[in-house]
Amino acid sequence: MHTPAAEPHGVGRPTEHSALSRVARTTWFPFVASTVVLVGTMLLEAGVHTAVFGAPSYSEALLAPGAHEVWMRFVIAVFVTGIAVIWAVSNRAQADRERRLLEYQSRLRELASQIAHSQHETYGALARRLHEGVAQSLAAGRMFLSADARDDQPVDPTVARSVARILDRAIADCREIATELSPPALETYGLVSALEALAGQVMVRSGVSVEVSADTRPNMPQPLLLASYHAVAEIVSTAAANPQTRTIRLTSEGDATAVTIRVSWDAEDEADLLSTRDRIHIFGGDVHRVVGDGATTVTVVAPLTPAA
């Protein structure tokens, strides 16, 4: 059963209004209402002067008032117009708040959709690696053992060694996946050590040369640190997967406001970076790509201060 997502703290849904209420909340309605009130007041005042104070005729009391009546009508007009202006300004402000709220909720829904898409891609990639690597290795080991299984004979040493190698490969794959998900160097030594470890893994796995030149000064919050590392890891994996790539360069620099990480490689690459952008956009950062002259540069900007 689908459960609607909860509204963010401090953000509610726009209130549903009736047709009459929606009309009353427009910017023009207060002035129409003030005009009606002003005309009604004048008609009532003329009737009172005719019935109570003995004015010659109703039309004369209405159209040819005395000095006191003119002054009174002026005061009432100013008062009613002031209320109409305040009412209209309030309606406009409320309409702007509801419009911004709807836009904010739309952006939240879009961001939630992008995050879900990124998580689906990440989990799918891990599932494929587990199935194609670890699961198949274990299945091969089981097949070797089953083929050599005899109740009255010990296991062939050659088969045992083959199974041991297969299990070692599966264990190494599990450790590699765990390291990529949460690199020990990242939490212990920071971004620079984690990027150097990532460079070593990529060189071993793909044969592509990876050079790292990183600034050790920035002290990033843990959530931003993890997001930045995984974003860079995705970019590096994309670059290493390009068959034309021979060298990847990682550089980072930072100040009191942001950390900038650049990944450059010697091949033109237009691969999708949607999940990479999602990771950084959550923290108010951005990802830029420049492609041309046989090279690609992707810049990740991770802000150290919350976006206003």
Question: What would the keywords be for this entry?
Answer:
alpha+beta, Heat Shock Protein 90, 62% helix, 308 residues, disordered N terminus, single chain
How would you describe the overall organization of this protein?
This protein is 62% helix and 12% strand. Helix 7 runs parallel beside helix 8 (222-241). It folds into 2 domains: 19-117; 184-308, Histidine kinase-like ATPase, C-terminal domain (Heat Shock Protein 90), CATH 3.30.565.10. The radius of gyration is 36 Å and the shape is elongated. It has 308 residues and is an alpha+beta fold. The chain has helices at residues 19-24, 29-51, 58-63, 67-148, 157-181, 184-189, 191-206, 222-241, 274-281; strands spanning 209-214, 247-254, 258-265, 286-292, 295-303. The chain has 9 helices and 5 strands, in the order H-H-H-H-H-H-H-E-H-E-E-H-E-E. A 5-stranded mixed beta sheet has the order 1-2-3-5-4, covered by helices on one side.
Distance between the terminal alpha carbons, to the nearest Å? 37 Å
Structural class: alpha+beta
Give the % helix: 55-70%
Radius of gyration: 36 Å
Number of helices: 9
The CATH homologous superfamily of the largest domain: Histidine kinase-like ATPase, C-terminal domain
Would you tell me the overall average pLDDT?
76
Query: Which architecture of the largest domain per CATH?
Result: 2-Layer Sandwich
The CATH class of the largest domain is identified as: Alpha Beta
In the CATH scheme, what's the topology name of the largest domain? Heat Shock Protein 90
